[in-house]
Design goal:
By secondary structure, the protein is mainly α. The protein contains five helices and no strands. It starts with 9 loop residues before the first helix and ends with a helix.
Length: 82
């Protein structure tokens, strides 16, 4: 049974928890896990243009660079819509 990701509140959006780390070990190398994807999408939805928020999204992208195709698509769609 996998714990559900809760994107309520500041800390849950920006911090990696042990469930996400465990999922990362089990997931294929070039793919984001379900929890990581939900956290990244929550981070993108919460973006207001502040430097710290952008830095956290960039850090997430670098930490998950092996899944670049999955990380870049939401960013592209966000920029295209805005």
């Amino acid at each position: 049974m996998n714990p559900e990701f809760d994107d309520e509140g500041y800390n849950s959006i920006y911090s990696t928890d042990s469930a996400e780390e465990s999922e990362r070990e089990r997931t294929r190398k070039y793919h984001l896990g379900k929890l990581a994807r939900k956290r990244f999408e929550a981070m993108l939805r919460a973006l207001s243009g502040r430097r710290g928020e952008l830095a956290r999204c960039m850090a997430f992208s670098l930490e998950h660079a092996e899944a670049a195709s999955e990380v870049s698509l939401p960013c592209f769609l966000l920029l295209r819509a805005g």
